[in-house]
Write a structure and sequence with these properties.
Layout (H helix, E strand, L loop, with lengths): L12 H6 L8 H7 L5 E5 L6 H12 L10 H5 L2 H4 L3 E5 L10 H15 L10 H12 L5 E6 L3 H4 L6 H20 L4 E8 L5 H4 L7 E2 L14 H7 L1 H11 L3 H12 L15 H10 L5 H4 L4 H9 L10 E4 H5 L9 H6 L4 E8 L2 E7 L3 H16 L3 H17 L3 H6 L1 H7 L9 H14 L3 E8 L2 E8 L3 E9 L3 H10 L12 E10 L4 E10 L4 E3 L14
Parallel strand pairs: 1-4, 1-5, 2-3, 3-4, 11-12
Antiparallel strand pairs: 6-8, 7-8, 9-10, 10-11, 12-13, 13-14
């Protein structure tokens, strides 16, 4: 039997079945959602299947039973009882860049009315058009309303055009308020978005939303669980293993490190893979940062830089439910927004008295490396293309090939390019920059790893080698090496079948440069100082 096709770019449930594409069956959970309250709201990161979810809901309500053959829904849905009119609003299809949002929304709703042969000639505002569409479609039965990317006209203008942002808030508030007055005509509504950035402002009139974003029943409604990945993509897993000449368990471990780790309840078995990255990986069999490349979080990265947030700070954040679910138009750098948009995820939930404490962290290697590259670009005040190739890619290549002199030369432009006032920053500031640089390589990197005697600064794990770094400010590289050995930081790695290096680095704050790097290598019995000058040259210097 021929393997099914990958659903790259497909958001139509009917198309996926018609073209023999892989569909990870979520219909049982979707049907469970359909039994809930009238107005249902859920946020998930972009490219996590929200549009496909809405399209599947639409197909059930439209009675397209034959399209569901082979899924749970085919034999379990009461198709005649569920059938009713569906009105779908997709903000990705509305032109509000060249016109006002009110004009774009008016044109969009008129096109829907024309397609449905509904006379709206007497309606001139989005609110009136929406009302007339609802009333007309609901003449026989209350209808279902589906709204995709509800907050997109807001997020597109945050930090860019305050006047347009305020106008769009008012337009959306009136538009969504229509649904409150049309309650008797609405059977269900399903509203999806990437964040809660506009929830309070634009839904103030529609104040009875059933927020499913952290509902424990639906934590795996979007994304692929480990079980789903192994079942539906078995043929592709086998092909990937052959492509890399690895066992299936080995390739699965690498796929998991790159694309798994998203969680909305902190339970290990409920962690999910990013579906967009998965289908793109199986199409090319290349480990790339597919999801991150579809939309750079410029404002979030810039906010992290302005607050001196490092990747290590994002690995272990504690918060409560209120902060986790908050997001507003003034504080768009907040932890809640980083979580909602997929750059942080729930690592653990602890019940303390009557409260729940959430521990957040970066979900996987894709997010870690990509966020680091963009954060590094902010620190060194260079375009991300420069940091990606000239810094991150080069450093990874040199570390992997154990080209130490060349690897450490990458440090020089990073330190020299940082726009900072040395009188306001301490050793931790330099550490932060170096940590971000290491994370950006995509190699497994740990910062401030704790042992019984202290915390080592940074450890970077390559395929053939391990690098343990200690950084000093206005001290000495020899002192940094001595600390690594005195604190026994290297002991857990002595028996690894990899070359083990200790690297001591000293910064000079006033000169904004590295003045010395010393390296020792484990020979199986002891650490031996490597000969040669590893200190990076400044621009314009020559050997």
């Amino acid at each position: 039997m021929a393997k099914k096709k990958l659903s790259v770019g497909a958001q139509s449930f009917v198309q996926i079945g018609r073209d023999n594409m892989i569909y990870v069956d979520k219909t049982e959970k979707i049907h469970e959602v359909m039994q809930l309250g009238v107005h249902n709201f859920i946020v998930r990161p972009r490219r996590f299947g929200k549009s496909l979810f809405l399209d599947t809901v639409a197909a059930i309500y439209e009675g397209k039973k034959e399209a569901f053959e082979g899924t749970w829904a085919y034999d379990h849905v009461d198709w005649e009882a569920e059938k009713r009119p569906v009105l779908r609003i997709d903000f990705t299809l509305i032109d509000y860049d060249n016109n006002s949002l009110a004009e774009g929304l008016t044109s969009y709703l008129r096109s829907i009315a024309l397609m449905l042969n509904i006379d709206v000639s007497k309606s001139n505002s989005p609110k009136d058009l929406f009302r007339d569409l609802i009333h007309t479609l609901a003449r026989e039965k209350p209808i279902v309303i589906l709204i995709d990317e509800y907050e997109m006209p807001l997020t597109d203008y945050i930090g860019e055009d305050q006047k347009r942002l305020e106008d769009n808030i008012m337009t959306l508030k009136k538009f969504y308020g229509t649904m409150k007055g049309a309650g008797q005509y609405i059977h269900r509504s399903y509203i999806t978005g990437v964040s809660k950035i506009g929830k309070i402002g634009v839904f103030s009139d529609l104040n009875m939303l059933n927020d499913l974003s952290l509902d424990p029943r639906f934590t795996t409604l979007f994304g692929y669980t480990e079980t789903e990945l192994r079942h539906y993509y078995a043929d592709y897993i086998s092909e990937a293993a052959q492509n890399y000449q690895r066992t299936e368990n080995e390739i699965l471990a690498e796929i998991k490190a790159h694309y798994n780790g998203y969680s909305w309840d902190g339970i290990e078995e409920n962690k999910v893979y990013n579906p967009f990255s998965i289908v793109n990986f199986f199409q090319s069999f290349q480990f790339r940062n597919y999801w991150f490349e579809t939309g750079t979080p410029t404002l979030l990265v810039r906010g992290a830089r302005q607050q001196y947030i490092s990747l290590k700070d994002l690995e272990n954040l504690s918060t409560n439910a209120d902060l986790l679910q908050s997001a507003n138009l003034k504080d768009f750098y907040g932890v809640g927004l980083l979580f909602q948009t997929g750059y942080l995820t729930i690592k653990k939930i602890e019940v303390k008295g009557w409260e729940r404490e959430y521990t957040l962290g970066l979900p996987n290697r894709e997010v870690q490396a990509s966020f680091a590259k963009h954060l590094l670009a902010e620190y060194v005040e260079k375009p991300v293309d420069y940091t990606d190739f000239t810094l991150s890619h080069r450093l990874r290549s040199h570390l992997e090939n154990e080209e130490l002199k060349a690897a450490f030369q990458v440090f020089a432009p990073v330190i020299a390019s940082t726009g900072y006032d040395v009188t306001k920053h301490t050793e931790g500031y330099f550490h932060t920059i170096m940590h971000v640089l290491m994370y950006s390589t995509g190699l497994t990197t740990f910062s401030e790893l704790q042992n019984a005697e202290g915390r080592l600064d940074t450890i970077c794990l390559g395929y053939k080698s391990i690098y343990i770094f200690e950084f000093k400010l206005n001290g000495s590289a020899a002192g940094a090496l001595q600390q690594i050995k005195a604190k026994n930081y290297a002991i857990p790695f002595l028996n690894e079948n990899k070359t083990l290096y200790l690297v001591g680095v000293n910064f000079l704050a006033a000169e904004k440069k590295i003045d010395e790097i010393l390296v020792e290598q484990w020979n199986g019995r002891e650490f031996v100082r490597l000969e040669g000058d590893f200190t990076p040259l400044e621009e314009g210097e020559s050997t």
